Amino acid sequence: MTPLEQHYRRLLRLLPADYRQRWEEDMVATYLDEEEAAWAGVEDERERELAYLRHPPLRQVVSVLALAVRLHLAAPAAPGASLQARQWGQAVRQVARLGLLLPAATALNTPIWSPDGGTAAVLPGSELLAWRAQAGLWLLAYLLLATGQRRWARVFAPLALAATLVESATSAAGPWILGTAGYLISVGVPVIALLAWHGEVPAPSRRELLRWLLALPAAAAGLWVLGEQVARFALWTGPTTLLCLTAVGAAVVAAARRSRTWSLTALLLAAHAGAAAGLDLANLIIHSTAPIAQIYATAHVVAMLVLLLLVVSVRRQRRA
Amino acid sequence: MTEPAFFALTALVAGPLHGYALLTEVEELSGGRVSMKVGTLYGLLDRLTAEAFIELDREELHQGRTRRYHRLTGPGREALQAEVERQAANARAASRRLAAHSALPAPGRPKAAGSGAAGAVGA
Q: Transmembrane residues, as ranges (chain A) (predicted)?
């Protein structure tokens, strides 16, 4: 076996085992046929031999990665896909949708169109502009995804993330606003999860579309109620808190519907929120001397660990 | 039916083909427009197999490697035929419309003074 063939076989390990069993030998033969055809015109024998020592070209690596995403995170009606791959696909798509809903609802909750930027009035002019840009882009990305414009959502969501990075880099605000790795994790993971919205995923039904469009004002109203009604909420609320609440919400839906897809969603959201909360805590330990902030951040991490264990044990019991 | 699936089924009409031959046939049939990567081809082959549009014909040993030949099934031929008829009907409808309006000025040509905004409509 040549090193090139070994590299191809290693690359194909990214694909699900049952798929590899069906197609691996054939795929390797096709890869090597293609390589041979590409080098057939080269007269220098040494150069032809060297071709079998190389790594697979980037375009082939990318196509295998794309295939791996399609197979592991399958569309609901993908022919030949396993039930597990469909459930994982649906769960990751829900993480993306809920993850985009949070910054979009925050943008709607804080009136980005008002002259003073609502609660963002404390920011100086240039920072207010940067804040408005990222808030508007998150809102747009969510609306595009909710209405089935996945291609455009996959353009605007990374733009929103980039705008958030720029804002975070230029902001002089403390660790509770932006500029924390925890915040970037909380909004960055849903952008990566958008990969699960591949070409095989059907456009949303009218009912789904209505549900996810209505979720935006509902989430914004929820944020307003939380902000207005909960005493000292402003001290500890933030994207990570909202993400933790979303994970708890997903677990409640999973329990009420006895849905495996929602329990996977809760599992992913709990891991996601836990990672963001862990980074928040590390950041606070380094930068903040306020013990109350550290206690809140610790509570977030513990709550997500408990939720993770709970969801995992319920899933195991149901499987048994 | 996607364009790669259309050309892959078309390529198999003439007889069973192995993976690499399918890649080159699809590229040739599409005039170089559809150039699939191997990962994309096998995503497509898996889907077409699950839909029973293609099936395994035979396996052959070539330079120590197993080449698998795929062939078109009855349902695959019917699906391709239906797609051909759909595309032909689309092309006929477009041709009829183009022929009916061939006397009109090309879009974007400056209008003569006083011709009115509705001049090009309903002529």
A: 95-113, 128-145, 152-170, 176-197, 209-227, 233-254, 266-286, 292-314
